[in-house]
Each structure stands twice: as structure tokens, then as C-alpha cells.
């Protein structure tokens, strides 16, 4: 895959996470210097009458920031779970993707 400047950017790994009306893509790509970075893309479907489009937001995360980013993300999630919403059973959301995947399969049968 080539970027806007004509440089080859190889996709190394990709993970798609469906979350309600949003979809998140976690993509590992290589640089021309044989280094790696992560892009996190949020894609949200927008309806415009009979047609639709996608609104996308992207974060580029480089290896020197992986630890700090993951640490801040985990700390923020734990704060919401333990301090702001201590009575919420978050385990109910763990099987949500499996259920949505099963529902999608049934729609196509």
C-alpha cells in the first residue's frame, strides 16, 4: 500500500472492534525505515437521508509512546470503573461482541 507521498506502507496486523454505531480499527503498519507504528481509527456511520457516509478520526501512535499511552488508557478506564461507576457490572459488556456477531450471522441466513 502506498501513502500520499508514494512510500510503501505495509499492513502488518489489523483488528476491528464493532462498538454500537462506531467501529474501531487497530492497524499496525511499517515505515520505510522498517519501523512500526499503530493507527487507531474511529469510524462512525452518518445517515444523510437515503445515503450514508463515514466520519473518521485517526490517531497515530509510535513505539516510544506505546507504554505511556497504554498506561494512561488503563488508568482512565480503571478510574471510571472504580471511582465513577463502582456499582456497574462491566462483565456484562464482555460477551457483547460475540452476541452481535451471532446476530449478524442470523441476519444473513
UniProtKB/TrEMBL annotation:
<dbReference type="Pfam" id="PF11680">
    <property type="entry name" value="DUF3276"/>
</dbReference>
<dbReference type="InterPro" id="IPR006628">
    <property type="entry name" value="PUR-bd_fam"/>
</dbReference>
<protein>
    <submittedName>
        <fullName>DUF3276 family protein</fullName>
    </submittedName>
</protein>
<keyword id="KW-0238">DNA-binding</keyword>
<dbReference type="GO" id="GO:0032422">
    <property type="term" value="F:purine-rich negative regulatory element binding"/>
</dbReference>
<dbReference type="GO" id="GO:0000977">
    <property type="term" value="F:RNA polymerase II transcription regulatory region sequence-specific DNA binding"/>
</dbReference>
<comment type="similarity">
    <text>Belongs to the PUR DNA-binding protein family.</text>
</comment>
